[in-house]
Amino acid sequence: MTTNLISAHVEPFDTYNGASIHRYSLTNQHGLTVSAINLGATLYEILVPTPDGGTDNLVLNYPNSADYLANPFYVNMAIGRTAGRIGNGELLLNGQRYPLSTNEGSTTLHGGPNGFNSVVWEGSVTDYDGQPAITFTHVQKSSVDGYPGDLDVSITYTLDEANTIHLYYTGTALNQTTVFNPTQHTYFNLGHAATIHDHLLRLDADSHLAFNAQKVPTGDLIDVSATPFDLRSEKRLGDVIDDLAETDEKGFDDIWKINETNSGEAIATLSDPQSHRKVTVGSSRNGLVVFTANSFTREKMNFIRSNGQGQPYEGVALEAQTLPDATRHEGFGDVVLPAGESRTDEISYHVEF
Ligand code: GAL
């Protein structure tokens, strides 16, 4: 008999468009909790214990389900079928062109208007290696998003006693060859400061992607050497934001190509010297988007941590994935899921506190 070290808890959260939304949580023996809601299979909290017996949440979150879709920032939501931007809203696959629904001018961003984030998922507590886990399931229909074929998707959250949260995304192409490149759009703020300026970020990446005026990758890689994009040694985000002050974006909204030599255990580390907390992101795929929330506004950004006073740089999103629009560019990686096949992509967050 296995002893359960991880405890699971389910409670009603609220309702969204008439659907009941629940919060599912897992807690380990060190007092680390991860919780998720079934609207958008959204990562709701990463709670760590504080010396006074309370908890601090290391990710941005809202009080209501409706807040998640009332803003365009995909806060902590599951993203798919494909993370990032697909040029001209047109998927190229095996010599065919598939028109997708668009949601940013002529571009398809984060799976389009009916992507994974817009879905009310079926949630349950499941068993993973003898420990409780949270699983969200959904069949994404071709008729809804325009991608070829129906895709059966499950997203499983697990937590272990080494303080690592694992997210497993499994896609099964039910009737046609399709593409699958999911991510979780998690925004971290590890400490008590209003913004992430004092956080340190390190990435195992020698290059980042060039993109056009629509932020769609051109296929070219840019060497990070001697630029603000060189995060091979950790950098303070506030310094990078200052370096980019004269750019349109005024911070990062960029895509790095993870070095092929990376083992998949640690593609990025984010730490906060003030609170002494650190998150290490694991992924065996070759891309990472870093978005320093440059365009956050007060309007609609009803974050719990700032009492409804959202602001630029309040969090930093780290989005592990295969490089976007991969079917268009040689060397961007393989996101194709042949008919009848399944694939699981994993993202992990190892938390030190
Ligand atoms: C990022 C994307 C940004 C922005 C953000 C969500 O992945 O690169 O441009 O759309 O998601 O608001």
UniProtKB/TrEMBL annotation:
Residues that bind beta-D-galactose: 185-187, 253
Record's keyword annotation contains Isomerase: yes
CDD domains: galactose_mutarotase_like
Short name of one Pfam family: Aldose_epim
Family: Belongs to the aldose epimerase family.
Gene3D superfamilies: 2.70.98.10
Protein name: Maltose epimerase
EC nos: 5.1.3.21
Organism encoding this protein: Levilactobacillus bambusae
GO process annotations (BP): galactose catabolic process via UDP-galactose, Leloir pathway; glucose metabolic process
GO molecular function, one term: aldose 1-epimerase activity
Task of the protein: Catalyzes the interconversion of alpha and beta anomers of maltose.
Active site per UniProt: 185 (proton donor), 319 (proton acceptor)
